Amino acid sequence: MTKADLVKAMAELDEDLVVAGVKEQLASGVPAIDVLAALQQGMEQVGKLYEAGDYYLSELIMSADVFSTAAALLGEALTAGGGTAQLGTMVLGTVKDDIHDIGKNIVATIMNCNGFKVVDLGVDVPIANFVDAVKANHPQVVGMCCLLTTAFDVMKETVAAVKAADPSVTVLVGGGPVDANVSKYVGADGYCKNAQDAVEATRKAVS
């Protein structure tokens, strides 16, 4: 299977073909990070189809499941033969009053595949849980997600509490309605449009 075929299979949500393609490419010596890039390109196409109204929420949820299944195979490949050193730690969660987890799960998967330890707090996470996780795990980065505009204020409170607990930590925010203006409003250090943005921003934070 070519890289283009894997992108197409991911975009068309053909899980059997995606899994077979990932295994085939790994077996033929394609670097896991390149296979991951193909999967991400497929996910980008899924996002565009969703924005265009060609895919609905059910397809979006399915894409996250297919991606997670395929990425699990990459995680094994990336850590095979001695493993990769962990580059840093991210505490990650969807803020209180928001139960969406698709984007968060994709970020967690891709961060893991890129060598970062992720402490996933789940969804609808109380402010105190973020603070406790920061104190317990000493992360360089805290990632907060939300898909509801009504959660912006609690995100702002969460950022303030995390910063009070550890002023050195970098707070990144993301999610469907989140942009640079929202990042500024909630007091975050940065806004990530997608999972790859989160990887690049975290690399800068730990360097």
UniProtKB/TrEMBL annotation:
GO terms for biological process: homocysteine metabolic process; tetrahydrofolate metabolic process. Keywords: Cobalt, Metal-binding. It comes from the Bacteria. One of its GO terms (molecular function) is metal ion binding. Residues 1-86 form the B12-binding N-terminal domain. Residues 87-207 form the B12-binding domain. The keyword Metal-binding applies. The keyword Isomerase does not apply. Signal peptide: none annotated. GO terms for cellular component: cytosol. This is Cobalamin B12-binding domain protein. It comes from Acetonema longum DSM 6540.
